[in-house]
Amino acid sequence: MTKEEVKSVLMEIVAEIIPDEDLTNLKGDIPIREQVELDSMDFLDIIMELRKRYGIEVPEDDYIHLATVDSSVAYLEPRMRDL
Amino acid sequence: MMAKKPNEARIVITGVGLTAPNGNNLAEFRESLLAGKSGIQKFNVRYMGEVLAGVCHFDPLKYQKKKELRLGTRAGSVAIYCAQEAIANAKLDLACLDKSRIGVYVGITEHGNVDTEKQIYEIKQFDYDTTFVSHHYNPRIVANNPAGEVTLNMGITGPHYTLGAACAGGNIGLIQGLQMLLLGEVDLALAGGVSETIHAFGAFASFRSEGALASHADPEKACRPFDKNRNGVVVSEGGCIYLVERLSDALKRGAKIYGEVVGYAVNSDAFDFVLPNAQRQAECMKLALNKAGISAGDIDIINTHATGTREGDAAECQAIREVFGNHINVYINNTKSYIGHTMGAAAALELAGNLPSFEDHIVHPTINVDQLDPECSFENLVINKPIKVDKVDYILNNSFGMLGINSVVIIKRFEE
Q1: Catalytic site includes residue B327
Q2: Virtual CA dihedral for B282, B258, B233, B325, nearest 10 degrees?
Q3: HSE value, Cβ hemisphere, 13 Å, CA-based, for B146
Q4: For range A4-31, the mean pLDDT
Q5: Which distant-in-sequence residues (6+ apart) come within 8 Å of B166 by Cβ?
Q6: Is B77 exposed, middle or buried (0-12, 13-18, 19+ CB in 10 A)?
Q7: Of A69, B78, B146, B406, which is least packed with CB atoms within 10 Å of its CB?
Q8: Shortest CA distance to B169 belongs to which of B235, B104, B109?
Q9: What does DSSP assign to residue B371?
Q10: What pLDDT shows up at residue B3?
Q11: Which residue is closest to A14 within chain B, CA to CA?
């Protein structure tokens, strides 16, 4: 997957997890949780969906890398490159 | 004749919120019952394929956000819809109420199997790796879920119970609400029952194994209590939650009063896991009549529990004969024939369908009776066509469940 494709699937998952939120103006460099209502259970949903859909394991120590859209893409891209 | 109770000790229904397979509020539901409109349809269930079921078509987004729907259960969603509708129907403004004085009492037949089945199906896709079990699973399957979801949605901070009572759940929820009002524990009670049973294969498969799952070429004819050729239960979803309060409070705010809960009883067969017991059912009806301080002849309508099973319908008829044998003025009907067995919602929903009789003096019939079973024959069984009667002062609502739980509620037309 390219960086753009990784971002696209990430946003697709986030949109399903928080379907009432408007994500059109989400800024890539600001923590997602500061811009939209996304609680810790929602965050775990994102981790679960990445596992279910792409077999990606995100260890708890790495959760910090999924704070913003940009950092998420940077973290996920090497792990999804060959998908 | 019992001494008149003070208004603080009289409990009245002042709001009705419901969803049935043939209507999403009391007016629609009543219209369907008087028009003979069934709500049974073909429905696909995992592992079973096409079955017959009663499916509700209310709009869950009327009161819930999409995320709430994603996180919650169908039972929770049904309960929220009904509770919000009951408040609106009672012309109360939730924002102006003391939410710590509202109690939520929701009867259920069972809870948790829908999401358990779903989780097992999900992890099957990952070779039963249990690390794929959702972190939302526990809050979905805890027994207090349906009532708890109501409190989350509505910001209610009073007590909430989900009461497991098999198919008597709807009456038990109402009785619990009444008792909490009488104890002074709450000032308003949202009380009734819900069901999400159709969203798991278990109930269908188990009834089928028992030889008690209804079948018919025409889905709308499948549920046929008292018919000679009845062949079992149609499993349905539904919900009905009442707003109940003390008469003194209802009068103070000029509320419309649908009826007064004057009698109730719950007893146990202590007999069998599944088979009914006519003697205990009769005793339960007598207990409720005693509680109301009236005699059998005072009842105008009996809403029967009859589900369309051979033994169940016959046992209830035997029980009714024992209690009401000589009273031909007591009309008998059945509501499941339209909507199937809405399980935990059944008692509350079926009672709601009859409440308008206090005003319109019409008794809705039991439909789908082509050949009346002589074992279920009553001179005053209302069959296939509604009838107009001179008066309706008392409605008796039967609801019985597995493990031998019997419940009866008696509602009186309101008069000061």
Answers
A1: no
A2: 30
A3: 39
A4: 97
A5: B109, B110, B401, B402, B403, B405
A6: buried
A7: A69
A8: B109
A9: S
A10: 78
A11: B67
Mean pLDDT of A31-58: 97
Which of B277, B233, B238, B282 lies closest to B108 in space, CA to CA? B238
Helix (H, G, I), strand (E, B) or coil at B344: helix
A20-49: average pLDDT: 97
Q: Which residues contact B247 (CB under 8 A, 6 or more apart)?
A: B7, B8, B10, B11, B12, B257, B260
CB of A15 less than 8 A from some CB of B: no
Considering the entire predicted model, what is its pTM? 0.97
User: Which residue, among B107, B82, B156, has the nearest Cα to B264 in the 3D structure?
Assistant: B107
Through-space distance between the first and last CA atoms of chain B, rounded to whole angstroms: 16
**Whether residue B167 lies in the annotated active site:** yes
Residue of B66, B134, B135 with shortest CB distance to A19: B66
Mutate to test the interface with B, among A13, A18, A38, A56 (most CBs of B within 10 A): A18
Residues of chain B with pLDDT under 50: none
* CATH of region A3-80, choose from 3.40.50.150, 1.10.1200.10, 3.10.690.10, 2.40.128.50: 1.10.1200.10
